[in-house]
Amino acid sequence: MPDLPFIARARLFADRIAFRTPEASHTYRELLDRSAVIAAELLGDQTDLQEARVALLVAPGFEYTASQWAIWRAGGIKLPICLSATEPEWEYALTDSQVSVVIVDEANAVKISPLCERLGVRLKVVDEIQGTSKPLPDIDVNRRAMILYTSGTTSKPKGVVTTHANIQAQIESLVQAWEWSEEDRIPMFLPLHHIHGIINIVGCAFWSGAVVEPFGRFEMNAILDRVRSDAYTLFMAVPTIYVKLIQALEAASDADRAAIVAGFKKMRLMVSGSAALPASVHQRWTALTGQELLERYGMTEIGMAISNLYRGERQPGSVGAPLPGVEVRLKAENGPVITAEDEPGEIQVRGPTVFQAYWNRPEATAETFEDGWFRTGDMAVLERGYYRIMGRLSVDIIKSGGYKLSALEIEAALLDHPFIAECAVIGLPDDTWGEAVSAAVVLKSGTLELAALREWCKGRLSVYKIPQRLKVVAELPRNAMGKVTKPAVKVLFGS
Length: 495
Description:
By secondary structure, the chain is an alpha+beta fold. It has a domain at about 395-490: 2-Layer Sandwich (GMP Synthetase, Chain A, domain 3). Strands 16, 17, 18, 20, 21 and 22 form a six-stranded antiparallel β-sheet that branches. Strands 11-12-13-14-15 form a five-stranded mixed β-sheet.
């Protein structure tokens, strides 16, 4: 059986640069060789991991991708976990997916090793893996390749299972639509436990023979320095980052702004996604840089499904038309499929990009499909051939700063606070974050202070879920029967 397609593609670009950092560059050949060594270490005396789950907690860059390829080449299922997650969140992912080994870099080993020891999970520090390669198993593209945990309408995230064929279809659709080539160069600062970074950036880049410059996070000054020097042909970010870039450009001196804008203008494509892009941000970015952002729509379960055109009209406030190989329809709440424009319905998606199942949740999987169509839970309307997102069917999902957050998960954490008796969490419109996490709380005692609440949340919620700015705090009065006597006061969180 031949190589997995992504390995066969990498061999075509063996001597080209894959990763570039200020310290070093690595070729596709080095990625292939390094991944073979790590795969041999994972296999040990086995000939095939037989879809054993292998968690990946490694900073973005060469060793991360080499480890990812190693897991797949050895026959395992990759489980990327969030670098900034808390121990309870890590524990949930590791135990729910029944992980057998965690690959970690030295910087993160000290954080997760006590948990691995307690759970009896093997730990492999990638920096210490040496040795030689060995014959690797033949892997069918229909085997399971990855589990990504995504928040849903339950208090605990669900594991989205995709096959190698699903991942290939997601990548090929975008490579075709956005005309990726081996001449492309792109920064990578989005998290690699999220489909935006894994598929849209790294997956498409390495399928095409392009160059990726990895950053541990969105390092504004370093990235803008590279933009000034015409380092990139593509740029992909969430709306929150574009808001921060606009603020930086507006605050810069005339000369500095001109140099940065010149770098952005030369890029062939700039994409926004993972949350709704306000039309005002789209228009302001175009006015500042001359670039029309390309907005697209997707989610963990389906990859990207809808996109504005690379060559054609890009409508502010619209996510565009179906991508190659993707079928999209709108379904009314009362049942019929919508064929006319200007009538809202739920977005439903079908095609080879759609995930296989939720990990060990057959009932949840069955509920989310209708006659082979995946029910996204997002409402949209078709206008002049382009889809415009109207919002979620469920208020339990909050899209904030590029993340899809479960309101129920945040409520469950806040209810553990000793002063909070009741709470309700929703998302409210916000120009910077798309939606701001908003909570109405009923206190049983004491007062709720921002600094103390932030500190208390640390260890219970990932950084991107923690309240950063508390606009209103109020203890809601109760009557003699203990009932709340006034409507809940909104407590807005943002950063």
